[in-house]
Amino acid sequence: GNSVTQMEGPVTLSEEAFLTINCTYTATGYPSLFWYVQYPGEGLQLLLKATKADDKGSNKGFEATYRKETTSFHLEKGSVQVSDSAVYFCALTKNRDDKIIFGKGTRLHILP
Amino acid sequence: EPEVTQTPSHQVTQMGQEVILRCVPISNHLYFYWYRQILGQKVEFLVSFYNNEISEKSEIFDDQFSVERPDGSNFTLKIRSTKLEDSAMYFCASSLNSGEKLFFGSGTQLSVL
């Protein structure tokens, strides 16, 4: 079935460090891919998405590129801030009417 | 920005008791969802709801679970007789149209003792 695997956390970085959170997926066809973020005490929020191969989603300095050849959608940011501390979830939907399938989430701690 | 509201934020109950988790979706949204996350595991889909009926449910959503939209603003998840393994964070979500961006609540942490 369809699934998402993302790197285990927690990930701890210093402010201004480069961030990569790995995500790979298993799905037939061409799923849409997402990164959601959950800040402390808040609900999950859509961070970025990509709907077809080679698309790059970006928002708030974060980027992820839909790589069909490696079935990956790794999240990157060039210079993280303390305010980026949160839990990040990689997710997919198979088509417009399908439910979202989430990964386990990766907790990110940014130290000042 | 409009938001999805969930209450309570924490719920502690005894095994075998009934619990009702409450959600107020965004007012003009038409599609409603419940997800849950057991500690250390994936966020799992439970059920989706549209036009006053369940449109899809997962294997987790057995006869012990039910959902209701009693008054046009609330969307509730009821667990009839809680089990220890129901302990999880339960997230409500809503969207304007199917397949569009989901807006999530901040979750209800359910602890079954």
Features:
heterodimer, A: mainly beta, 6-stranded mixed β-sheet, 4-stranded antiparallel β-sheet, 12 strands, globular, B: mainly beta, 50% strand
Structural commentary:
The complex is a heterodimer of chains A (112) and B (113). Chain A has strands at residues 3-6, 11-14, 19-21, 23-26, 32-38, 44-50, 56-59, 62-65, 75-77, 86-93, 101-102, 106-111. Chain A is mainly β and 112 residues long. In chain A, strands 2, 5, 6, 10, 11 and 12 form a six-stranded mixed β-sheet that branches. In chain A, strands 3-9-8-7 form a four-stranded antiparallel β-sheet, with no helix packed on it. In chain A, strands 1-4 form a two-stranded antiparallel ribbon. In chain A, a hairpin with a 5-residue loop joins strand 5 (32-38) and strand 6 (44-50). Chain A is globular and about 40 Å long. Chain B has 113 residues and is mostly beta strands. Chain B is built from no helices and eleven strands. In chain B, strands 2, 4, 5, 6, 9, 10 and 11 form a seven-stranded mixed β-sheet that branches. In chain B, a hairpin with a 2-residue loop joins strand 5 and strand 6. Chain B is globular, with a radius of gyration of 13 Å.
Described by strand count, sense and barrel closure, the largest sheet of chain B is: 7 strands, mixed
First-last Cα distance of chain A: 41 Å
Low-confidence stretches of chain B: none
Greatest chain-chain contact = A-B, 22 and 26 residues
Secondary-structure-derived class of chain B: mainly beta
Report on the biggest sheet of chain A: 6 strands, mixed
In terms of quaternary structure, the protein is: heterodimer
Output the helix-strand order of chain A.
EEEEEEEEEEEE
Q: In percent terms, what proportion of residues of chain B is strand?
A: over 45%
User: What form of chain A results from the Cα inertia axes?
Assistant: globular
Task: Count the E strands of chain B.
Answer: 11
Class by alpha and beta content of chain A: mainly beta
